[in-house]
Design brief:
By secondary structure, this protein is mainly beta. It has two domains: 2-83, 2-Layer Sandwich (Glycoprotein, Type 4 Pilin), CATH 3.30.700.30; 90-158, RNA polymerase II/Efflux pump adaptor protein, barrel-sandwich hybrid domain (OB fold (Dihydrolipoamide Acetyltransferase, E2P)), CATH 2.40.50.100. It has one helix spanning 79-89; strands at 2-8, 11-20, 23-28, 31-41, 44-49, 52-61, 64-69, 72-78, 98-103, 110-111, 116-122, 125-130, 135-140, 147-148, 155-158. An eight-stranded antiparallel barrel has the order 1-2-3-4-5-6-7-8. The longest helix is centred in the middle third of the chain and has 11 residues, at 79-89. It is elongated, with a radius of gyration of 19 Å.
């Protein structure tokens, strides 16, 4: 059995993979799912996941695996690489795709846990993204009016020390 610790769409998860016949049995979030893969060449795969067939295109970028299936692209990164990015972002990344409507902090500013960092508008609703802990703003990576993807780092925090 192999254990994969991955990050996808801002979520860290652990998958237990047991090779089985032409594929594997994948245990994820308490559920076991049979997965079979057939290489079609040029990065294309036919994946049968829990009985449903998907045409999947795969490409590697460094340690990140990009999978495109059913009109969506998914990015998977090993947890060790993702953990480094998580520490840098300090959980201040955009929770969904949207437009940054206001930046409420500046680089060098001290922030308290729960302090508002920026406002994101998605689907005509505003979401205030707050600091997960006390710290100092290292960098602001977006501007008001800028469209960002879900998971994009908008404000980087660092620990005070």
């Amino acid at each position: 059995m192999s254990v994969l610790r991955l990050r996808c769409a801002g979520v860290l998860f652990e998958a237990h993979v047991v090779p089985s016949g032409r594929g594997a049995l994948v245990r994820l979030e308490g559920r076991e799912v049979p997965v079979e893969l057939r290489d079609l060449g040029d990065g294309a795969w036919e994946a049968t996941v829990d009985g449903a067939r998907w045409l999947v295109h795969a490409a590697w970028e460094g340690e990140t695996l990009h999978l495109h299936a059913r009109g969506r692209t998914y990015r998977f990164a090993p947890a060790r690489a993702a953990a480094h990015r998580l520490a840098a972002a300090a959980d201040t990344s955009a929770p969904m795709p949207g437009v940054v409507t206001r930046i409420l902090v500046t680089p060098g500013q001290r922030v308290a846990e729960g302090e508002a960092l920026y406002v994101l508008e998605a689907m005509k609703m505003e979401t205030v993204v707050r600091s997960p802990r006390p710290g100092r703003v290292r960098r602001v990576r977006a501007r008001a009016g800028e469209q960002v993807e879900g998971g994009a780092v908008v404000v980087e925090l660092e620990e005070e020390g």
